[in-house]
Q: What sequence folds into this?
């Protein structure tokens, strides 16, 4: 684990680097649960929202649940007895900031998919320097298990979850998808697949061995063994079963190798008998998150992947 003193010493540098072309993070300012966030304010009136549902004791261990209210649920596309599939969203923010309720995290996704019969879960997790990235992945797995256990309360199907994350969140969902121990230890059930939205930290040892933004030192430290443990690409090694299907979205406008890492990750997953595809997009890192859900070829491509995972998911999509 990176030393807390090193992390604290570099957080100020991180904030500056996040605005540079090299980082391309377009990361949100820190927004705590008690502060105003634009996501809920823009939520359609036809969507019900449960705020700050706990999955742990820390104030960051909270989820927001977006679903059809009971009056609208009767018009959902699901046949009687079939519950809603779930999109389980993990925000980005360089592992040090961000919030589940930011508009670019949830607004377009909720507006498009909840009226079509999905439930959207958007989670917070503990941040560096309080915890390291492995503990963050455990938070993701714990929240997933909790959401699955309570899915029926929201009219959702515990067996039809799709993991989705952007930036640091993409790294975390890719790590949970690649390394079965996280979900097993948390008691999570199997999920349908994972959509990773533009992570440039899929092969952490390769990133750290090459020139990289200085804030990565605060996040991943200097121990090669920790790099491997936090690396989705390396977590695929030695699996006894294939991972759940991957969709790896990457920005062709980045210069730090996110598409190159996505290609390598897909090849390794396929080599393990898994299904994986790469979706390059001529969008900025931030737009890959914020514009998902708007009517576009990009959104339809993501939906095509989701539809391929399950017949009930396909029923909800155009």
A:
């Amino acid at each position: 684990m990176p030393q807390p003193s090193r992390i604290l010493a570099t957080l100020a540098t991180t904030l500056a680097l996040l605005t540079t072309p090299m980082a391309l993070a377009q990361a949100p300012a820190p927004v705590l649960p008690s502060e105003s966030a634009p996501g809920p304010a823009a939520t359609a009136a036809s969507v019900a929202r449960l705020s700050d549902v706990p999955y742990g004791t820390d104030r960051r261990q909270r989820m927001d649940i977006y679903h059809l209210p009971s009056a609208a649920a009767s018009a959902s596309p699901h046949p009687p007895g079939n519950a809603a599939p779930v999109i389980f969203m993990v925000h980005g923010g360089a592992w040090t900031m961000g919030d589940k309720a930011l508009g670019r995290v949830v607004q377009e996704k909720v507006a498009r998919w909840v009226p079509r019969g999905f439930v959207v879960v958007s989670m917070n997790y503990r941040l560096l320097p309080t915890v390291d990235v492995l503990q963050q992945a455990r938070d993701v797995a714990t929240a997933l298990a909790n959401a699955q256990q309570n899915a029926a309360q929201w009219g959702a199907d515990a067996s039809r979850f799709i993991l989705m994350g952007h930036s640091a969140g993409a790294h975390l969902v890719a790590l949970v998808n690649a390394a079965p121990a996280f979900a097993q230890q948390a008691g999570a059930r199997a999920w349908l697949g994972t959509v990773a939205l533009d992570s440039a930290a899929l092969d952490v040892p390769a990133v750290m061995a090459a020139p990289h933004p200085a804030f990565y030192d605060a996040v991943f430290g200097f121990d090669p063994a920790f790099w491997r443990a936090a690396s989705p690409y390396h977590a695929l090694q030695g699996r006894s079963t294939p991972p759940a299907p991957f969709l790896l979205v990457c920005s062709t406008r980045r210069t730090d190798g996110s598409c190159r890492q996505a290609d390598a990750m897909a090849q390794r997953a396929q080599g393990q008998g898994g299904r994986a595809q790469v979706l390059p997009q001529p969008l900025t890192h931030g737009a890959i998150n914020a514009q998902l859900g708007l009517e576009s070829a990009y959104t339809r491509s993501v939906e095509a992947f989701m539809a391929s995972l399950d017949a009930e998911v396909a029923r909800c999509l155009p």
About this structure: The chain has 15 helices and eight strands. The longest strand covers residues 156-166. The CA atoms of residues 197 and 288 lie 7 Å apart.
